[in-house]
Amino acid sequence: MRKLKNNELDRLTVEDFKTSTKTPIIILLDNIRSLNNIGSVFRTSDAFLVEKIYLCGITATPPHKDIHKTALGSTDTVAWEYAENTLDVVEKLKLENVKICAIEQAENATMLNDFSPEANAKYAFVFGNEVKGVAQDVVSASDMVIEIPQFGTKHSLNISVSCGVVVWDVFSKMKNTTLQQ
Question: Can you give the pTM of this predicted structure?
Answer without folding.
Answer: 0.95
